[in-house]
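Provenance

Sequences were taken from public entries as deposited. Structures were produced by running a predictor on each sequence independently, with no templates supplied. The record for Glycerophosphodiester phosphodiesterase from Cytobacillus kochii is shown for reference.
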Amino acid sequence: MGVSERVEEVSIYAHRGMSGTFPENTMTAFQAALDAGVEGIELDVQMSKDGHLVIIHDEQINRTTNGKGYVKDLTLDELLGLDAGGWFSSNFIGEGLPSLQLVLEWLLEEGNDLTLNIELKNDIIAYEGMERKVLDLIDRYQLQDRVIISSFNAPSLKKVKAINPNISVGYLIAGVKQDAIKVARDIGADAIHCQPSFALSTYGRDAIEKGFPLRVYTVNERAVKEQLVETGVEVIMTDVPEQLK
Ligand code: G3P
Ligand code: CA
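Predicted structure for Glycerophosphodiester phosphodiesterase:
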């Protein structure tokens, strides 16, 4: 199979939305990704003090909002009142943090056929009950076939599969994790989400051969993308989909 044919097979997911050009994990970044023609978006979920699912990468709000402190210590209302755009550029002042519910509703709008990769950010703070809350929300909107759940937290992914064996799960790893296939099997994962270093290693090739598609983050250079396409990865996650499409 030639490279050009392979290029058409790989799917592009916008990492934290179109986060190279817009404030990460905001509705503006997600809409821009849809407009750019990607196949999916990746986003990060943390949980508020009152048990709501909020889209933000860090455990603390300090880096990407105008507030300070931990997501887990603030209520949904407090989190939704923060500015999540001004840190990136004054053009985006007024941009808020989205809830997961808002993103799922947006996914159901006409013309939106994106796949949504929901990363559970529960490897640093173990949010009690997060898995069931996420799956219940997905159920409520009947979006089971359009979502992928990923996490660095293997026991959490096992819980996800125990609650709903049909939901697609990606085991998320950093670097060249030599026991990735073993852990992915133990979880019952459908894929491995990894960095280029793993995908381009013998471990990565072995994973593909053993039936684990690779979804690779975060790829912002065309040359790396082309190497990955040649290797046969399924998904490339990028901050700059407009440059890689
Ligand atoms: O899901 C892939 C990637 O987003 C994991 O790393 O730190 O960007 O959430 P991070
Ligand atoms: Ca992420």
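The mean pLDDT is 96.
The chain has one domain: 3-244.
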